[in-house]
């Protein structure tokens, strides 16, 4: 009996110390996993309003004669007989319903690039849906959760289907969007055309062993070197989408446009915390940027827009680097520029020390000789992630609402635009050097022989693709899957820390 109070004291002390330990562990774990203690996705994305509206669209993929780059009509594959396909516009919070019909001679699916959609709507054949057979239909339905510039394209044999013209734009407007004088949507693409203006037909073999299919004609909205008209002083929003299979862009608006008159304010649909300089910003396949341009006043009459991204030698008659993409002609009366703040992300996490956290998963992008095809003229290499092709990997398991530090390394002398479905991520370092990109993105260019580390907090459940968006590379295996599941609940009667259990 005399020992009873002491035993009680020991037990109470033990429980108290254990509770203290647990609190300190969870606090330090929180601080360690997320240096800025921003753990909820809603915190940095904001809540989606519910408009109650349903926006319905019909989308038909078909083969038809169309004109590209001013050449004679040629056979293209397209959505709604337009290249680029339609611009679908919805409001943030709308329910979007797209009735898709496949009139192509082969199966396809439609992927909503960058959109956070329910997993079953992501358009990945064999993962989220069965391929839509020729003559078949599929209804895509999702809520437009995040405002921004998105695009859609097939996720099946996309190195050929996208290249033949299958892509369109999805714009999610926000009630907070400022009213610009004009809004332009520019879809960038490069086409490998024959001298007759037809799409060069040798898909596969010749393009597949290389840095991808680079075209010999660059287009914006299907036109080579188009001209746009604007008044001096007009404030214009330019939504730019890189729909090329393999070509990267860096836009240069020239000396007439200072870093105040023209800035990037959104990347991959996501507002940036700070305006970014246009010149030098890499736009890899899949990337989007939104530009806020105030047309300069003064004596300038035209603004040439040049691509300064230099690609190494490509096959065919390809000019690389310093290619004029478009011209803005300044016409009419000068007007007083509209005055409103450049839109910005108000809740962007800093994650400034996150690159010091342990790496959760590493992905090495490399190539492997494909002995099986050496004798029949097929592709001679596989493009692999961690030595394995798509279908051979274990699915990376991620818990939702948890911070992950992922690393990508490149063992090839080629560029790889890394694209993650179903989530946005922040680049933490490039080539071992810490960077602080003030924005989220869904596609990042992995430099040849370089590395990238990213931070991501997945929130939407399901199996999502992680792949190279250089479409010839993904066709040759450079894809894998991550699966986001809810945090596991701790089984009952199981202590989380056996070492601290009370002994008496
Ligand atoms: Cu690649």
Provide tags for this entry.
single chain; 504 residues; mainly beta; Immunoglobulin-like; 3 domains; six-stranded mixed β-sheet; 5 helices; 30 strands; 37% strand; disordered C terminus; binds copper (II) ion
Task: Give an overview of the whole structure.
β1 and β2 (74-79) form a beta hairpin. Helices cover 10% and strands 37% of the residues. The strands form six sheets. Strands 10-9-12-17-14-15 form a six-stranded mixed β-sheet, with no helix packed on it. A six-stranded mixed β-sheet has the order 21-20-23-28-25-26. The chain has a five-stranded mixed β-sheet with strand order 11-19-18-13-16, with no helix packed on it. With 504 residues, the chain is mainly beta. The chain binds copper (II) ion (CU). Copper (II) ion is lined by residues 416, 468, 470, 473, 478.
Short recap of the structure:
The chain has 5 helices and 30 strands. With 504 residues, the protein is mostly beta strands. The protein has 3 domains: 45-177, Immunoglobulin-like; 179-348, Cupredoxins -  blue copper proteins (Immunoglobulin-like), CATH 2.60.40; 354-485, Immunoglobulin-like.
**From the helix content, strand content and strand pairing, which structural class follows?**
mainly beta
Question: What is the average per-residue confidence, as pLDDT, rounded to a whole number?
Answer: 86
Number of helices: 5
Under CATH, the topology of the largest domain is which?
Answer: Immunoglobulin-like
CATH homologous superfamily caption of the largest domain: Cupredoxins -  blue copper proteins
| CATH architecture assignment name of the largest domain | Sandwich
Low-confidence runs (pLDDT<50, min 5 residues)? 12-39, 313-319, 489-504
When the domains are counted, the total is 3
| Secondary structure: number of strands | 30
Q: In which order are the strands of the major sheet placed? A: 10-9-12-17-14-15
- Tell me, briefly, the overall form: globular
CATH class of the largest domain: Mainly Beta
Largest sheet: 6 strands, mixed
Strand content: 35-45%
Round the Cα radius of gyration to an integer and report it. Answer: 25 Å
What compounds sit in this structure? copper (II) ion
